[in-house]
Amino acid sequence: VRREGADSARRAWAYAHSLRRATHLLPRRFSLFDVRCSPDGAQLRTETAQRELGSPALNLPEGAEGEALDAASAAADDAVDTQRMDGLEGPLMAVTWQLPDGAAALDAAPLLLAAVRSVLQPGIRDASPARLAAAAAALDLLAGAPRAHTAHELWSGVLPPPAEMLHWLQALAGHPELRLAVLRLLTAVAPLGAAEVREQIRRSALFHAGSSHWHPAPLDDSALFLVRLVREAALPAEGEALAQPTAAALPPVQFVLLRLLPVTRGDESDRALRLKERVACLLCDLLDQGGASAAAAAGLSDTPGAQLAELILGSGAVHDLLADTLRSATGAWDRGRQGAGGGLSSAAARLIGARTSLLSTALGLLLRLLSAAHTLSSASSSLLPLHVALLRTTAPVDAASSAAGVDKSEHGAARWLALCMLLSGDDDDVDEADEEDEGGGGAWLGASGGPVRCHAARCLALLCHAAGRDASLTRMSSQLVDLAPSLSALLAGWVSRAARALRAGGEDVDASAARRLGSAATQLLGAAADALPDVF
C-alpha cells in the first residue's frame, strides 16, 4: 500500500472493511458454552454471536466456522513467551474463521487501532515481539488510509483524533521502527485535518527544543518526517490565504534548528544531505509563504513573522549549513566528481544528485536571508550575525589539499560563492531541461548550473554591500584576487549573452535564463564597483 499508490490503497482498504475470513489466537484449552469444538479440537463453530473473542478480539456471528492451524499454533506458542496475551491464559492456538453467508462482514479498522494501543497499555518495554510486529504492520496499513477515504470517513470510522496519534508518537519515540511508522501516518493524515493537526503539533511538547523524547536526535528517515510535520504546523495549509505566522509556530521551528539540523554537521551521507535540503526548503517556505521576509522588510519587529526571520537569521546551525555546503560544493564535492571520470555507480550518481539539490536549495535560502539582512542592516547601520559568519575567513584548505597544490588562498564565503559561479554544468550557462548526467563528462551541476551560478552571483553582490559597512573588504579581496580573470570573463560572457537575447526578443527558456544571468552579472558588477575595484 505504501509504494503502490491510491488505487492499491483503495483496493486494500475495500478488502479490510469487508473481511469474510479472519485469523486470531484462542487458548488451546478453553471451555465456552456457546462455541462447539470437534473431538480433536481442530474444528469450531459458534452457536451464538460472540463479542470480543480471542486476540485480536473478534465479534463473530452465529454459525461462524473455525479451523485450528497446527503450524501457526506452534509459531504462536513460540511468539508468546509469557503465555499470556490480551487476557488469554495458557498455550494459544491460531484459528481461522469463515463467516456464514448473509452475516455482516468484519471491519479491520478497529482491530488495527487495537493492535497499536495494545503495545502502549503494558508499556513499549514490556510488549512482546509479536505485539510490536502487529503494531508496525497495523500502522503501515493505517498510513494508506488517507488515500482510500474521504476526510469524513477517515475521522469518523478509521483513525483516532490527532491528539491520540501524537500520544502514540510520544510513547513510541524511543522505538525507531514504530516511531517511523507513526510519523508516516501523521504526515499522511495532516493535510486532511490541517487546522487540528497544526494546533496539536504546536501544543505538543514533542516539538519543542527542550523535549526529552529525542535523545539522541534521530538521523534516520524519522527526521525527514519530523521536518514535514513542522512544516504543517508553521505554514498555511493548501488553499488558505497567506498570513503572518502565529507565535505558537515558533517552537516547532526552533526544534528543527536546535535539535535536528545540528546532528547533520559533518555527515555527508545521502540521508544527511536530504535532511539538510528538507530543512533548507522549510526555511525558504517560511521566509516566502510564512511571511517572515515580508515582516522583516516592513520593520515589524514585534510580530511573530519578524521574530521568525530573526530566529533563522541568527541561527548558528543555519550559518553552519550554508558555510559547510558552499565549502564542500567548491572543494571536496567538486574534486570528487572530477576524479570520478566516466565510471559512476548508481549510488554515486544519487549522491551527486543529492549534493546538487542541496547546493541549489542552500543558495536559494542564502539569497533570501541576505536580502532580508540587507534591509535590516541598512536600517541599523550594523552587521547582523549572518554577515559576521559569512565574512569570517578561515585557514587555507586542509593540509593534504594544500600540499597537492589545490590552492593557497584564504577561504571564506566570498570565495566559495565565486567558485560556485565557476562550477561546471551541462547547460552552458543556460537553464535548459537537459537529461541528468548519469555517468561521465565534466559537469556535476547538470541542468541546475544556471540557477546555481545566478544565485551565487546575487549572494556575492549582497555580501559586497555588507562588507562595505565593515573592515571586511580587504579580506574579501584577498579571497577573490586570484579568481579575477576567470570571474571577469564569466561576467562579460553573461552580459554579452543577455544583450544578444534582448536584441533577438525571444521568450524561450534559453533567452529567459540568459537575461537572468545578465541581470545577476550587472547586480554584482554594480556592488563590486566601489567595494572590490581591484577584483572586477
Structure description:
The radius of gyration is 30 Å and the shape is elongated. The chain is of the alpha+beta class. The chain is built from 23 helices and nine strands. A five-stranded antiparallel β-sheet has the order 1-9-6-3-2, with helices on one face. Strands 4-5 form a two-stranded antiparallel sheet. It is 56% helix and 7% strand. The model is unreliable at 71-84, 397-407 and 426-444 (pLDDT under 50). It starts with 5 loop residues before the first helix and ends in a 5-residue tail after the last helix.
Largest sheet: 5 strands, antiparallel
The beta-strand count equals: 9
**What coarse outline follows from CA principal-axis ratios?**
elongated
- Strand residues, percent: 5-15%
Q: Flag low-confidence runs.
A: 71-84, 397-407, 426-444
Rg from C-alpha positions? Answer: 30 Å
